Amino acid sequence: MNLTLLILLFCGLTVAQDVHENVTEKTETQPFFPSDMCDLQRKIGAMKEQLAALANRQNNSEKRIEDLERKVIFSAATDGSGAVGPFNTDTILMQGFPKLISLFPHFVSTGVFTTSVSGTYYFTFFYHAGRDTQQLYVSTKMSSLLHEAMITKGGMMGLIMEGTVFVRLLAHTHIWAKNHITTFSGF
C-alpha cells in the first residue's frame, strides 16, 4: 500500500507541474493589455481627423451646389428663312425653336421661362419686325409693349419662385426669323 501511495503522489506531482507550466505560458504570451494599444489609439485619432475633414469638404461642396443651383441662364433665337407669323391669335414666341441654349428643357417646348428661385432677373428681347407689335409678359401680366421696326428691349424684374416670363406676338403681326435676328434671353 505504501508503494501505491507513493505512485499516486508522484503522478499527482507531475500533473500539477504540467498545469502550472500551461498557466505560466498563457500569462507570458497573452498579457492583459495588448502591446499595440497606443498604435490603435493613434489610428483612431487619425481616422477622427479624416472624418472631420471629409465632413468639412461635404459641407463646402453642398454650399457650392446650392450657389450653382441659383444661377439661371437661358437664351432662345429664331431659326428660319423668313417671317414668323402672322397668326390669327396672340402667340407665344420662342416656342419650339431649335436654336436654343437653355438649362430648362420645359422652356424649349413652351416658350415660357419659369423661375427656379426667387430673385432679380434680367431679360432682353431683340427683334426685327417691320413695325409689328410684341408684348413681354411677366406671370401673365403685360410688362412691355414693343412696336418698333428694330428694337432691343431689356429690363430687370423681381420674380418669385415659379414666376413665368414669355414674349407674345399679337394676332396678325410678324417678326423676322432669319439668321437668329430675334432672340429672347435672361439670367
From TrEMBL:
Coiled coil is among the record's keywords: yes
Top-level lineage group: Eukaryota
Signal peptide location: 1-16
SUPFAM superfamilies associated with the record: TNF-like
Protein name: C1q domain-containing protein
Alphabetized Gene3D superfamilies for the sequence: 2.60.120.40
Organism: Sphaeramia orbicularis
Keyword line: Coiled coil, Signal
Residues that span the membrane, as ranges: none
UniProt KW Isomerase keyword: no
InterPro entries: Tumour_necrosis_fac-like_dom (IPR008983)
Coiled-coil stretches noted in the UniProt entry, renumbered to this chain: 44-71
